[in-house]
């Protein structure tokens, strides 16, 4: 090795090392753990959420910061609730890295009230009890423990409707009027029948619905009792609601009505702009997601109609303050404000997340959304919220739903026999619940 | 391992005992204590930082995992441990998901390790010749290794996309139907293995290259004088000379394959390794039990089974290598 050659060689190696450093830095995104940041009396409140709560988008943080000088709000957000929940549980167990405000999905709230009551602040100590009358009774009671601790304030509920692409409907020669459609798909059989007609004349590469997983999820959401009975016993194997939803989903998969996309995956996101599916069962909070994914190009192409087979609820969330939070009192003030009727109304008007505060529901009854072809979303979702059954919530609701969804994907994408897939689902649920 | 023996043979004398010639005027009563103590202790002092860290981050987690594996331990209720004895282990052997994961770990291990080492060997052999831009090629080889698992896996996941992936597009050009790289069992395992192969081939090639540099150039020259082709040179000079290095890389790759985790996790971002667990490895199954379902006791049991599995595999590897070494030494 001669000396003059060493220098460029070293340079190349250093370049390689520098490149690695850049790549690594690009991958390690901050998780927004630390929250104590009190320079000059300022308080930085951290808010850790999943999916789309719509606070930032509706400008509520900016408004709160204006109303409360000295408070700064920093939000972190995970798209997939499953990932969010895993990370939250790890941090709760370790007791570190928790935000001042943590979002909790309704499918997890029973787990929080029954297993982790000590890890969240009882909001009664800050006077939350006085707010009880503002919320729908079922929403309030689900976040209350048996001994009366209030662990979270309700944000939205998930009344369900059917979102559809009127441009694609027109191309396939289907009616596009939402009242007519609601009559045609008054039952799920009617919905599948329209799907067959759509499939026969659909534009190339476009399926009737995004995935049978979403069909299953809305249908299960129409029942009062799903995975657990009122006494807390696990009954999903014999639950009529689970069976009805499963059968319809299997049928839709068998007839090739689905685009076979995995909800919340990147291909699913891309499909919003490519028009790979014509209908998407949509809880109210999905509206904001559709707007985000389909963008301005989708404006006016989407519409909302009443859900086939009656009213139902899918999802909805809470805001809670972990015991390990750095600024509990300030965090409570923030979530009290964010979940107050006026703010819930603003979020609904901006993002479509349907309010759980009763006064707010009254305020939005006449709301229409220009993005969704001026659909009367206030009335459609308001009716659904009023008529939806009050669901029995169980500790492992989400875990069970996830495993059943996996098994349905097997039927949908691999052509697994439905009986085999159901047996797989039971095995997987048993494994998950341990 | 064979490399241990030459090392032991050439190991220097104990540092505390100077050679006799230097201590020529021998005192009647050498007081080894006074002179020996600081010198004898200092090596241990130098070792302390490492062993402190090793105890805290190596030994303690290992033992604590063994302890937890005997209990029903849940992440959501960390304070409540319920004695299960070997229950977590026996449950594992009756668990179909465990056997699937074990089988997947093995098949993905073979699919990734074998092509990876073969290609590395070939690349190293080629790069050992005097080539134009040799340094560039050698550096380029190491680049995939320097890339983070996350970045590489995410890119590969896009390449293998079903509808919009580059690979299916290319297959389409030559008239092959799109392959379901996510849901097909063999297809998904090939896809995951390809990430591993891409990342580690260059690393192994460089290790082989280092090994090759120790083979005297005269051997190649002599072979060339004898009219041996490059392929013959590879078979009869390179391979025998590289044997210890090959043993080393297979041991390291075996360990890596048994612990494979990041690539299958990030391929679709699912802890279950696909909708039918078709590419869920043991590492991923451990993660699913621990951080997907929050069953820490069962996850700890899987961790220990993996540890024992690796120990057995590495032991078998070393035993095979030593047997060969002895055989050759005996000749």
UniProtKB/TrEMBL annotation, chain A:
<dbReference type="Pfam" id="PF13416">
    <property type="entry name" value="SBP_bac_8"/>
</dbReference>
<dbReference type="InterPro" id="IPR006059">
    <property type="entry name" value="SBP"/>
</dbReference>
<protein>
    <submittedName>
        <fullName>Sugar-binding protein</fullName>
    </submittedName>
</protein>
<feature type="signal peptide">
    <location>
        <begin position="1"/>
        <end position="25"/>
    </location>
</feature>
<keyword id="KW-0732">Signal</keyword>
<dbReference type="InterPro" id="IPR050490">
    <property type="entry name" value="Bact_solute-bd_prot1"/>
</dbReference>
């Amino acid at each position: 090795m001669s000396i003059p050659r060493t220098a460029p060689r070293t340079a190349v190696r250093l370049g390689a090392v520098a490149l690695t450093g850049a790549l690594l830095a690009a991958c390690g995104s901050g998780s927004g753990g630390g929250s104590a940041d009190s320079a000059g009396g300022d308080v930085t409140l951290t808010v850790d959420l999943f999916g789309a709560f719509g606070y930032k988008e509706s400008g509520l943080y900016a408004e709160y910061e204006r109303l409360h000088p000295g408070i700064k709000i920093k939000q972190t957000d995970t798209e997939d609730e499953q990932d969010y929940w895993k990370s939250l549980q790890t941090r709760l167990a370790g007791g570190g890295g928790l935000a001042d405000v943590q979002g909790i999905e309704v499918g997890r709230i029973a787990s929080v009230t029954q297993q982790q009551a000590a890890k969240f602040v009882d909001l009664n100590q800050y006077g939350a009890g006085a707010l009880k009358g503002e919320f729908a009774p079922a929403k309030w009671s689900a976040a209350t423990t048996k001994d009366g601790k209030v662990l979270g304030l309700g944000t939205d509920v998930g009344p369900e409707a059917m979102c559809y692409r009127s441009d694609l409907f027109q191309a396939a020669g289907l009616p596009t009027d939402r009242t007519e459609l609601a009559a045609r798909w008054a039952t799920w059989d009617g919905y599948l029948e329209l799907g067959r007609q759509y499939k026969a004349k659909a534009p190339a590469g476009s399926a009737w619905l995004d995935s049978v997983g979403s069909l299953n999820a809305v249908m299960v959401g129409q029942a009062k009792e799903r995975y657990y009975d009122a006494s807390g016993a696990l009954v999903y194997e014999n639950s009529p609601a689970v069976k009805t939803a499963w059968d319809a989903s299997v049928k839709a998969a068998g007839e090739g009505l689905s685009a076979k996309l995995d909800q919340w995956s990147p291909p699913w996101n891309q499909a919003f702009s490519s028009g790979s599916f014509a209908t998407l069962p949509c809880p109210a909070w999905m509206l904001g997601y559709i707007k985000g994914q389909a963008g301005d190009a989708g404006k006016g192409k989407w519409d909302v109609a009443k859900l086939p087979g009656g009213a139902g609820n899918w999802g909805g969330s809470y805001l809670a303050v972990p015991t390990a939070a750095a600024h509990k009192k300030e965090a409570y003030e923030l979530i009290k404000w964010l979940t107050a009727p006026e703010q819930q109304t603003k979020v609904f008007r901006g993002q479509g997340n349907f309010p759980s505060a009763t006064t707010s529901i009254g305020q939005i009854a006449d709301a229409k959304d220009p993005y969704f072809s001026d659909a009367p979303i206030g009335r459609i979702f308001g009716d659904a919220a009023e008529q939806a059954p009050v669901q029995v919530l169980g500790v492992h609701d989400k875990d069970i739903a996830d495993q059943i969804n996996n098994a349905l994907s097997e039927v949908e994408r691999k052509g697994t026999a439905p009986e085999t897939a159901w047996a797989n689902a039971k095995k997987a649920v048993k494994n998950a619940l341990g | 391992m064979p490399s241990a023996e030459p090392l032991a043979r050439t190991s220097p004398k104990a540092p505390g005992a100077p050679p006799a010639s230097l201590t020529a005027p021998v005192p009647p009563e050498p007081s080894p204590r006074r002179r020996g103590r600081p010198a004898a202790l200092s090596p241990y002092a130098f070792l302390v930082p490492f062993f402190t860290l090793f105890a805290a981050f190596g030994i303690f987690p290992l033992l604590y995992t063994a302890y937890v594996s005997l209990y029903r331990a849940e992440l959501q209720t960390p304070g409540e441990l319920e004695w299960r004895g070997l229950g977590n282990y026996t449950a594992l052997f009756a668990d179909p998901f465990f056997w699937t994961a074990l089988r997947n770990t093995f098949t993905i291990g073979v699919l990734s390790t074998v092509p990876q080492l073969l290609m590395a060997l070939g690349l190293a052999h080629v790069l050992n010749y005097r080539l134009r831009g040799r340094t560039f090629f050698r550096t380029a080889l190491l680049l995939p290794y320097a890339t983070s698992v996350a970045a590489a896996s995410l890119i590969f996941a896009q390449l293998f996309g079903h509808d919009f992936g580059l690979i299916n597009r290319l297959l389409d050009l030559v008239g092959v139907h799109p392959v379901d790289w996510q849901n097909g069992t063999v297809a998904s395992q090939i896809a995951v293995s390809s990430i591993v192969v891409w990342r580690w081939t260059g690393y192994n090639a460089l290790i082989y290259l280092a090994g090759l540099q120790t083979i005297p150039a005269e051997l190649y020259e002599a072979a060339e004088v004898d009219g041996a082709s490059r392929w013959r040179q590879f078979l009869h000079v390179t391979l025998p000379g590289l044997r210890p290095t090959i043993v080393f890389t297979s041991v390291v790759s075996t360990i890596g394959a048994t612990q494979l985790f990041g690539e299958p996790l990030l391929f679709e971002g699912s802890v279950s390794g696909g909708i039918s667990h078709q590419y869920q490895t043991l590492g991923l199954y451990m993660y699913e039990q621990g951080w997907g379902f929050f069953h820490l006791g069962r996850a700890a049991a899987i961790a220990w089974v993996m540890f024992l599995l690796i120990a057995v595999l590495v032991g078998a590897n070393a035993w095979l290598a030593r047997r060969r070494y002895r055989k050759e030494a005996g000749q």
